[in-house]
Write a structure and sequence with these properties.
single chain; alpha/beta; Aldehyde Dehydrogenase, Chain A, domain 1; Aldehyde Dehydrogenase, Chain A, domain 2; 2 domains; six-stranded mixed sheet; 14 helices; 22 strands; binds adenosine-5'-diphosphate
């Protein structure tokens, strides 16, 4: 049974300049678990995106001039409200996104942790002085907010993907306009309710919800008042948006797709590797950009690993996110499910062996059974694309060099995982893997204190950590002369 959605947090349209937008044109937000309509939301177009950019532009001088301590205080108040409303926010998130409620609660905590982290970092936007080449000069370097930040965020983490951008931007002194994914606008709008309650000033945080992603994206990537653009989503869309930003020489952060290898070496603790794989693979039913995608296992332990994995995956429960027993919820859409099913079917046609699952789950139309395929090879589509579903695709390797070669044989470079108890190997492999983030004997790598981001076709820029403000600030060099 779906618990009632908080009427206080549930909104019907974009939040622009502290006003709620309404319109006759609306779109339905659907619960992916049962296809029920959760809410009708006003469909914003380019005019609303322009209005949001104008509001953020107007608010920028005031917000950036506030003492960092004051911005920190406001971010902290917003953080406290996320914690206070955690359950209500999580219910909305599960209803529109599908993930188990316990994961939704964790996501709210995770999103909130960025507010907490950046509330602290706001106070640490330090500059430096540099020894000058002549006695009459002083060189001072300071960091200043870039200006209006626009962002586009995905449906898989509707709260956290937005909050890790918004928290950093606001901490640095930037104002913010976000277009969340149309599948999950309610979580973003709920954040606007709490931003207002926290006292975030008018125009500083704006949410534009609409179905015409292309037209809204066009405004956010080309309007000259936008100084910086931040995107989390697919590499294909990221390339389009980066190209649009290039015309205006905008600052850009791109958090794009991944194709994470998960390597299990012969010296690994196999039980720990199985547990790590469950976390790295099945969180959000396999719909995360850091999901383990290609599972590479040393051939000497391959059979033992599969038998432990089968036992563990067999125990996973599939069902609606509001059932407390559910480990996996639905996929976001029927289209998404069909894509997963096609990858599995074509791998089997090409010689992969189905060890478990391989079909829709009886829990509902958009549910897929946790699946294990063995004898997968690097040339199969399932090894080359992001699966974005609950499918473990197992490949074999014979030695460390082959494992590294297979792992790096992708255009993507977001996350990679490996399990080994050999300290020499840990450092060798960590050095050799071409990815922005490594989980070493660990399946859960995301947290606000760490720099999240990729290399190669997985993008550029880092979110979270002490580096997280860099993308939202410009370095300004002051040369003081005539000091003798
Ligand atoms: P996903 O596979 O997660 O849906 P997308 O890259 O398609 O990845 O979507 C991520 C975000 O990008 C969503 O908010 C979506 O609405 C938006 N989006 C998709 N296509 C475009 C586009 N052509 N221009 C601007 N935004 C887009």
């Amino acid at each position: 049974m779906q618990p009632a959605l908080s009427q206080y947090l549930l909104r019907q349209g974009s939040y622009i300049n502290s006003e709620w937008h309404s319109s006759h044109n609306s779109f339905a937000v659907i619960n992916p678990a049962d296809g029920q309509v959760l809410n009708q939301v006003a469909d914003a177009g380019p005019e609303q995106a322009l209005a949001a950019v104008a509001a953020a532009h107007k608010a920028f001088p005031g917000w950036s001039a506030l003492p960092a301590a004051k911005r920190s205080e406001l971010l902290n108040s917003w953080y406290q409200l996320l914690i206070k409303y955690q359950t209500d926010l999580a219910i909305i998130l599960t209803a529109e996104q599908g993930k188990p409620l316990i994961e939704a609660e964790a996501e709210i905590n995770y999103g909130a942790s960025y507010l907490q982290w950046f509330a602290e970092q706001a106070k640490r936007l330090d500059g430096v002085t540099i020894p000058a080449p002549s006695a009459d000069k002083r060189i001072i370097v300071q960091r200043q907010a870039v200006g209006v930040v626009a962002a586009i965020t995905p449906w898989n983490f509707p709260n956290a993907m937005m909050m890790r951008k918004a928290a950093a931007a606001l901490a640095a002194g930037c104002t913010f306009v976000v277009k969340p994914a149309q599948q999950t606008p309610l979580s973003a709008l709920a954040m606007a309710v709490l931003a207002e309650q926290a006292g975030i000033p008018k125009g500083v945080f704006n949410v534009v919800v609409g179905t015409d992603a292309k037209a809204l994206g066009e405004v956010l990537t080309t309007d000259p008042r936008v100084a910086k653009f931040s995107f989390t989503g697919s590499t294909a869309v990221g390339k389009i948006l980066a190209a649009q930003c290039a015309k205006g020489i905008k600052r850009v952060t791109m958090e794009l797709g991944g194709n994470a290898p998960f390597i299990v070496f012969a010296d690994a603790d196999l039980d720990a590797a199985v547990q790590g794989l469950l976390v790295a693979k099945f969180r959000n039913a396999g719909q995360t950009c850091v999901c383990a995608n290609r599972i590479l296992v040393d051939k000497s332990i391959y059979a033992a690993f599969i038998s432990k994995l089968l036992a563990a995956v067999n125990g996973l429960k599939v069902g609606t996110g509001f059932k407390s027993s559910s480990d996996l919820g639905p996929l976001i859409s029927d289209e998404a499910l069909q894509k997963v099913a096609k990858l599995v079917d074509s791998a089997i046609e090409q010689g992969a062996k189905l060890e478990l699952g391989g079909q829709r789950h009886k829990a509902g139309k958009q549910f897929y059974t946790p699946t294990i395929l063995s004898q997968v090879t690097a040339d199969m589509a399932i090894s080359q694309q992001e699966i974005f579903g609950p499918v473990i695709a197992l490949q074999q390797f014979t030695d460390e060099a082959e494992a590294i070669q297979l792992a790096n044989a992708t255009d993507y470079g977001l996350a990679a995982y490996f399990y080994s108890r050999d300290i020499g190997r840990v450092f060798r492999v960590a050095q050799a893997l071409q990815f922005g983030m490594l989980g070493i004997n660990e399946g859960a790598i995301s947290n606000a204190a760490a720099p999240f981001g990729g290399i190669k076709h997985s993008g550029y820029g880092r979110e979270g950590s002490q580096y997280g403000l860099d993308d939202y600030t410009d370095i300004k060099y002051l040369c003081l002369g005539g000091l003798e």
